[in-house]
Amino acid sequence: MSTQTNSSLKKIRVGILGFGTVGQGTWKHLQENAHFWPKILGVELIPSRASVRSLDKERPVEISKDQLTTDSASIVDDPNIDLVCELMGGVEEAKLLTLRAFAQGKSVVTANKALICEHGEELFRAAEEAGVGYGFEASVAGGIPIIKVLRESLVSNEFPLIYGILNGTSNYILTRMEKEGASFEEVLGDARQLGYVEADEALDLDGVDAAHKAVILAYLAHGIWVNLSEVTVEGIRRISNEDLQAAENLSCRIKLIGVIRRNFTNDHVAVAVHPALIPIEETIARTDGVHNGVCLNGSVVGTVVLTGRGAGQDPTASSVISDLVDVVKGVNGISSLPKLVHVSPEQCQPATPDEIEGRFYLRLAVDDRPGQLAKVAECLADRGISLATVSQTPHEKDKPASLILTTHQTNEHSIAQALAQLKELPGVVDDPVLFRMFDPNGMS
Amino acid sequence: MSTQTNSSLKKIRVGILGFGTVGQGTWKHLQENAHFWPKILGVELIPSRASVRSLDKERPVEISKDQLTTDSASIVDDPNIDLVCELMGGVEEAKLLTLRAFAQGKSVVTANKALICEHGEELFRAAEEAGVGYGFEASVAGGIPIIKVLRESLVSNEFPLIYGILNGTSNYILTRMEKEGASFEEVLGDARQLGYVEADEALDLDGVDAAHKAVILAYLAHGIWVNLSEVTVEGIRRISNEDLQAAENLSCRIKLIGVIRRNFTNDHVAVAVHPALIPIEETIARTDGVHNGVCLNGSVVGTVVLTGRGAGQDPTASSVISDLVDVVKGVNGISSLPKLVHVSPEQCQPATPDEIEGRFYLRLAVDDRPGQLAKVAECLADRGISLATVSQTPHEKDKPASLILTTHQTNEHSIAQALAQLKELPGVVDDPVLFRMFDPNGMS
Question: What domains does chain A contain, in order, with CATH numbers?
Fold first, then answer.
């Protein structure tokens, strides 16, 4: 080991479970800042061991063979390891190792959104009972410090609306489709080559990763754990270049957003992830590429927007290390992560679809025959839905025409019913495409 | 007093020095969240006393006469007061009262940027020696939690560049001038009526308030106190509607920005506040009205941008209360504000003008005679400055013509010399107007 240690200072040794991109980034930046930790913490903070799948793989970071192991539990159990970074991903093994660390009085820092989304309630309780810290800044929006801002900086606020871009991969794909007119499949191929897409592609493309993060934000803002099955989750696969162009004609951009709304009259909370048309003047609409952006609408502060890199080795390591520093302050008796619960669970309930209002964008592939638009409009009118704009793109010979509609205010229940009926309408060729029209002022 | 207190919980009583907009906002939101503090802090947090100039003035907040005093020191000295919020503004009295509170072991939370800019070094040392907290989140960018993000969330980062809009009043004026074509004087009149302009108008209009904040950010990022006399400070008074239009033609917007650059090869730090042309695609260029926005370029995290309301009762109270909560965690043994110093002072030195490179925008009022442009270009060429764009607006009869130039890369020293010479050039009618062309990628 080349790390120089000053023997007069207390040493806090960090064990890293999972030595992929983020694990190696955390190791590297802990080493590079070694001179800095004694100044702000009064202790040394030393990356000491890491668990890997293969001991023999070449790695660009400075680590010796005897610091590596394939046995994650041996790191957790090592009496010389004071803190654990769980950066291995996956749910079941990560959960067992996290609880095992807590049981030994060791604080844990994680970037694992799936784990927290599924088992956060149990894990936070276990951490509290064990009197240890559990940091998860890196689990939402990569390098953007949204967790700390939400639960510390904006502590006097309630949040009628939080929304934002929570998945960099899908935003990268949408941005390139929009700017270059490239097809979904083409950009997806590039994203795979760049290593941007998770092995389980549904996480990125079908909105699941963003939904994990939205559930975590909903918990921090409202103190309730919304079950993933209660979250509307739609991905980006049905967004076409035609939709992106139609959105532009409506002075909007289509983004995959997580949305957490709370109605303070009945304390119902709605959590959703779906593509939405966002007015071009909103910062979130112009947050492009792999960047994430979160807009917090606070009852005291008003609107605060944070943007930055939502994933990647360095931004995520930045968040992991900020949690490590907070946890070390706790171990060292200076500080600790704050208590979590913003309101007690019994106050909030998930919202039902008829409560969730908004405007919608519909694209229908229709046979180009007389009276088709009238039938569609009638079907919507039957559910009390009126149209705001209508445009029919010129169709090519022997292909269906594209009918693009936007509605006035209605609700999720009515539009879902109308959609089911539209699917069955003679002359409607394919499943209709439905996106939300996001109104940033609709809740305030 | 109508505030219900639960006698089984420890009570932390807050005294507020200065009961203006922010003081009353803090009082109100502490009261409104009274049910919440025991949940996250395990103690009650009670606004108890406030000092005012006039006891008899009508105030919209719920406060009894016996909680008010005209004697701020009596609040500081009151053994029943545990924490002090210094929200009175001004420098000398505020400093004395802050030190007086520290001497009695009381933590202080402030929104006073002028005080911290001028006496931060002494005050932070005094707080550390007294073992108390000194919170100042509200001193920079109102409700935007820039202080906490900079020193806690991004703790593993160094910052080659931080820039942003730090004064809402000047941004409000520029935005209305740009959007409506209204004159500076006209919008300034409105801003005065709306109560947006400080009694000392130089603070807002001449960049002094933004400079106070830039000095604080430079300290947090680099650990040095830059003297205000070493900061380039220019305000918005010379920005004309013509400049705003010319900037738009260059795909830019003119904003009054604070800029803190550090050159990591020689550890020189440059702090400046001045109008700058910012490319329209930057979030800061599109941060309008009374909003503030700060762009942090971190060595690990990359670019993080925060926007939000930069002043006003509620946003500022949101920041004051987040500090109060952090301080109470300290009093209660849970946590405290972090140590401050990011690097040791001897490492950093202020940059000299010849080190500060960039491109510039020049507007000259010139007599419309042959060879005028050639003379101007020659004068710039003598200093090694070449031109990127030139445009001459059609002049009205008997009025000078407007010559608008942008330069290629040069430095502050050369442009200052050229400017002095241009002023003396025959045919140049008025003092030339000089703005920076901000290049967000120039440092990374």
Answer: 11-135 (3.40.50.720), 148-310+346-350 (3.30.360.10), 355-437 (3.30.70.260)
Two structure tokens written together for B48 = 């108890």
Show the tokens assigned to A437: 């029209």
For the cut 80, the answer to whether the pLDDT of residue B344 exceeds it is no
- Interchain contact, B145 vs A304, CB within 8 Å: yes
**Would you tell me how many other CB atoms lie within 10 Å of the CB of residue A35?**
11
Structure confidence at residue B334 as a pLDDT band (50, 70, 90): very low
By mean pLDDT, which of A39-48, A248-257, A377-386, B246-255 is the weakest? A39-48
Each residue's pLDDT tens digit, B41-65:
889 999 999 999 999 999 999 999 9
Q: Is B345 within 8 Å of B224 (Cβ atoms)?
A: yes
Three-state DSSP state, A441: coil
Q: Is the dihedral of CA B262, B263, B268, B273 positive or negative?
A: negative
Our CA-based measurement puts residue B402 at a distance from the nearest CA of chain A, in whole angstroms, of: 32
Strand B268-279 to B44-51 pairing:
unpaired
| pLDDT for position A443 | 46
Active site residue A213: yes
Q: How many Å apart are CA A283 and CA A281, to the nearest integer?
A: 6
**Residue B235 to residue B359: CA distance in whole angstroms:** 19
Residue B335 has pLDDT above 50, yes or no: no
Q: What is the pLDDT of residue A1?
A: 39
- Please answer yes or no on whether A338 and B341 come within 8 Å at the CB atom: no
Half-sphere exposure of B137 (CA within 13 A, CB side): 30
CA A145, distance to chain mean position in Å, is: 13
Beta bridge partners of A349: A268
Q: Is the CB of A223 inside 8 Å of chain B's CB atoms?
A: no
ipTM (interface pTM): 0.92
Give the closest residue to B276 by CA, choosing from B262, B261, B297: B261
Kindly indicate the confidence band of residue B2, based on its pLDDT and cuts at 50, 70 and 90.
very low
Asked whether the beta carbons of B270 and B259 are under 8 A apart, the reply is: yes
Residue B217's CB: how many other CB atoms inside 10 A?
Answer: 25
Contact between B170 and B239 (Cβ < 8 Å): no
